[in-house]
């Protein structure tokens, strides 16, 4: 198991149609091409022996001296630099992909790795060991010359080309090289994936590689000029924005939930899902955040994609929408177990595809409606027509059990969050109808909205817990309800909401980290446990801030930032020892970081007018009290 680096020890690069992970040791151990959801070429992150990888790193001096590695992004870009520091020299490997910000899917993708030395002399070793189709398919190797190797797979070819200074040699079905550079020298290898049988790419020169590096850097610096965020956490918000962009499939505007599949929520457990798809919920919640950040083009591109899905009515369930799709809108995500892969540190089974696509999750209609409406008029014809068709269907189908936001596999229940989002769907549509003078079934929509409201208040509230609960006829708390004030269902200062927040704080929160729910109290049909959910932890920060608990919110936010990895990325969860767990990096987490930062900025801007009660609450949390003004304890009383 020592062959598996920690999940957090990675940076991500991508070209907006696919993405790859590079470990802090210089190992490219995850890459699916030509799309995010394509079979892998490198997947040693899921099986160190059979998955395949491409390593490019400085060789250990071998004299007993220590070599230190560090990894960073070039500021405000997706160019990843891994540094190797040894007594004889300092070397670097820069990994990047030139963005393909186009509406046309590409079959050819280039991943570039540049080695250079900035001090002394450094020896590098290259080992390229691809394994096609998740390691299931064999390949043939051809080495036309010392600067070109062709790995011919079943549907994809991989070309490995090197610049002067790197001589490639075959080693069985793999390719290796050793080379030595001195200060000021550089050399590069380029990995190009093509459709099987396509012509080989032209061998690049080092000058061309440098121009590609500058083009990549310029793209990201130019893209970030649209960012309007000027708050206190610019580095973290900008890194999250770049991460969200990297995880968006440019030809359709559809964001994927994460770059990976199969990474465990508990090491050794079975909660190992495929997240390389577009969830309606996750992507819809990102729209307002993107608009608030100034990225209108990305927000509108997803809205168009979402509208097209509604119009197509192409779902496996027959409902207007299903919870997730492939990046091109294909609704078929058949789940299979890859039995030949051992899984990350023995976390088995490894699943490709996602059977949850067939689940009924009624909350997605609320998030979709909000996404279609936020930011202005959704259109007089196509957009409004698509929305009304969804709402007409929802009017007849909202009041039934479903699998809920967390995609549990323990049976359908009457989830409070699903009813909350039903209320959102009709609330937003009624507002938009009035604001933009659009035709609507006003009476019918109003009846449904009000029925959902009454049901939540009457059945979703638990008198003994003094809190809103996960599903009716239970007393289980659920962190998804942290969104209740955010969506406008009630005020963040409402006593019932504050009581709910207190209940969550006492049961779901562990040192500012938030669990989704307690699986032991609400069985979800799966064995094992999971870590705290980063999405929920950032939602908790936002809820605290909006509820006036500003000191507690900022402290929780600052602590959450310490769980980011060395280049500012988050996986899905945090484990008991502070380790990152689950698929990586997760878009939903970075979205929630952005919204939490903006909420904190808003509330801090008004902090001078806040009552001192927040200080009392924060102090009490740590076991001491702040004396009231004029008391004997502060020296001003009698």
UniProtKB/TrEMBL annotation:
Gene3D superfamilies: 1.50.10.10. GO terms for molecular function: hydrolase activity, hydrolyzing O-glycosyl compounds. One of its GO terms (biological process) is carbohydrate metabolic process. Residues 234-597 form the GH15-like domain. Coiled coil: none annotated. This is Glycoside hydrolase family 15 protein. Residues 5-211 form the Trehalase-like N-terminal domain. The keyword Hydrolase applies. Keywords: Hydrolase. The lineage of its organism: Bacteria, Bacillati, Actinomycetota, Actinomycetes, Kitasatosporales.
């Amino acid at each position: 198991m020592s062959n598996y680096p920690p999940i957090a020890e990675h940076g991500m690069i991508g070209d907006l149609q696919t993405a790859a992970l590079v470990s802090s040791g210089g190992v490219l151990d995850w890459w699916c091409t030509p799309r995010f959801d394509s079979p892998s070429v490198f997947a040693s992150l899921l099986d160190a022996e059979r998955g395949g990888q491409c390593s490019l790193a400085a060789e250990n001096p071998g004299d007993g001296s220590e070599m230190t590695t560090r990894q960073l992004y070039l500021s405000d870009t997706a160019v990843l630099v891994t540094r190797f520091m040894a007594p004889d020299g300092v070397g670097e490997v820069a990994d990047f992909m030139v963005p393909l910000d186009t509406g046309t899917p590409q079959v050819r993708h280039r991943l570039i790795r540049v080695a250079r030395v900035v001090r002394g002399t450094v020896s590098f070793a290259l080992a390229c060991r691809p394994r096609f189709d998740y390691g299931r398919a064999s390949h043939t190797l051809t080495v036309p010359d010392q600067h070109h190797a062709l790995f011919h797979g079943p549907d994809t070819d991989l070309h490995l080309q090197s610049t002067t200074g790197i001589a490639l040699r075959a080693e069985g079905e793999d390719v290796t090289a050793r080379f030595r550079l001195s200060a000021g020298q550089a050399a590069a290898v380029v990995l190009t994936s093509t459709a099987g049988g396509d012509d080989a790419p032209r061998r690049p020169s080092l000058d061309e590689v440098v121009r590609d590096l500058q083009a990549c850097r310029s793209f990201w610096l130019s893209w970030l000029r649209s960012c309007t965020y000027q708050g206190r956490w610019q580095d973290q918000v900008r890194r999250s924005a770049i991460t969200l962009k990297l995880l968006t499939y440019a030809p359709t505007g559809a964001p994927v939930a994460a770059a990976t599949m199969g990474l465990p929520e508990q090491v050794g457990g079975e909660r190992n899902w495929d997240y390389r798809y577009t969830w309606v919920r996750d992507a819809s919640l990102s729209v307002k955040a993107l608009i608030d950040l100034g990225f209108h083009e990305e927000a509108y591109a997803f809205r168009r994609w979402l509208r097209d899905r509604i119009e197509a009515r192409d779902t496996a369930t027959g409902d207007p929408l299903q919870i997730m799709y492939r990046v091109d809108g294909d609704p078929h995500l058949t789940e299979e177990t890859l039995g030949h892969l051992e899984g990350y540190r023995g976390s088995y089974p490894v699943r490709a595809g996602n059977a949850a696509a067939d689940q009924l999750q009624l909350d997605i209609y609320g998030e979709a409606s909000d996404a279609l409406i936020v930011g202005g008029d959704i259109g007089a014809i196509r957009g409004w027509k698509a929305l009304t068709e969804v709402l007409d269907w929802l009017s007849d189908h909202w009041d039934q059990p479903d699998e809920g936001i967390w995609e549990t596999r323990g049976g359908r229940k009457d989830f409070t969050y699903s009813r909350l989002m039903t209320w959102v769907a009709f609330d937003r549509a009624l507002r938009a109808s009035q604001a933009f003078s659009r035709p609507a079934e006003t009476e019918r929509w109003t009846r449904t909205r009000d029925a959902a409201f009454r049901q939540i208040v009457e059945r979703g509230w638990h008198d003994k817990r003094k809190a809103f609960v996960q599903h009716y006829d239970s007393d289980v708390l659920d962190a998804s309800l942290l969104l209740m004030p955010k969506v406008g269902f009630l005020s963040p200062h409402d006593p019932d909401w504050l009581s709910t927040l207190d209940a969550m704080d006492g049961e779901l929160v562990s040192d500012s980290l938030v669990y989704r729910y307690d699986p032991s109290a609400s069985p979800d049909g799966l064995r094992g446990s999971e870590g705290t959910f980063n999405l929920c932890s950032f939602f908790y920060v936002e809820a605290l801030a909006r509820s006036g608990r500003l000191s507690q919110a900022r402290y929780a936010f600052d602590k959450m930032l310490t769980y980011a990895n060395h280049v500012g990325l988050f996986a899905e969860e945090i484990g008991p020892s502070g380790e990152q767990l689950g698929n990586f990096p997760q878009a939903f987490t970075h979205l929630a970081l952005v919204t939490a930062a903006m909420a904190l900025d808003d509330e801090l801007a008004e902090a001078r007018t806040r009552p001192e009660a927040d200080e009392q609450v924060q102090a009490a949390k740590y076991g001491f009290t702040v004396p009231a003004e004029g008391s004997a304890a502060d020296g001003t009383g009698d």
